[in-house]
Amino acid sequence: MFSLPSTFLLLSLFSHSLQTSLKILNTPDQPAGHSGDCRKPLLCSGVSLHFSTVHPVYSWWDSTFYRGRVAKRVNMSECGFVSNAVVTATARTRKGSAGNCPAIYTSRVNVREFNVYSVEELSAKEIGKVNCDVHWIATGYTDCD
């Protein structure tokens, strides 16, 4: 068993190793050198599954804006961004699924959600057979509270 001093030392070392530093140089909503409101940097990530039981827009659909492409809306409201984040996303097949996911790009990013669109022509039916999830990471700001 650990003694009280050694337990304290281990907890201190472990908690220090979990602390990270995130520095955002600028975002579209906050150019470099802008002091503005009290905001702290936030890094948030997630996986949006290929299907949704919540709402159809969170599943893949045939885009009417970009004909011949598929689209998917990704919810990131739990991150708590106070300004539009910088988002990077990629589509990946689920383990055990056959086929390849298309290259995607992000669009219409706001504090709660964003859309992804396929680069190549593809239908929602075709991508549904491959089971492509969207893996994403967003960098932005949250309130200082």
Describe this structure in words.
The chain is of the alpha+beta class. The strands form 2 sheets. The protein has a 4-stranded antiparallel beta sheet with strand order 2-3-6-5, covered by helices on one side. The longest helix is centred in the first third of the chain and has 15 residues. It starts with a helix and ends with a strand. About 8% of the residues have low confidence.
Question: Could you name the key traits of this structure?
Answer:
145 residues, alpha+beta, 3-stranded antiparallel beta sheet, 2 helices, elongated
List the helices and strands and how they pair.
Elements: H1 4-18, E1 39-48, E2 61-62, E3 70-75, E4 86-93, E5 104-107, E6 113-118, H2 124-130, E7 132-143
Antiparallel strand pairs: 1-7, 2-3, 3-6, 4-7, 5-6
Order of helices and strands: HEEEEEEHE
Residue share in helices?
10-25%
The assembly state of the depicted protein chains is single chain
Strand order of the largest sheet: 2-3-6-5
**Strand segment count:** 7
Strand content bin: 25-35%
- Average pLDDT confidence is 82
The major beta sheet can be summarized as: 4 strands, antiparallel
The number of helical runs is: 2
Low confidence ranges:
6-17
Counting helices, strands and paired strands, the structural category is alpha+beta
| Anisotropy-based shape | elongated
Distance between the termini: 39 Å
The radius of gyration computed from the alpha-carbon positions, rounded to a whole number of angstroms, is 20 Å
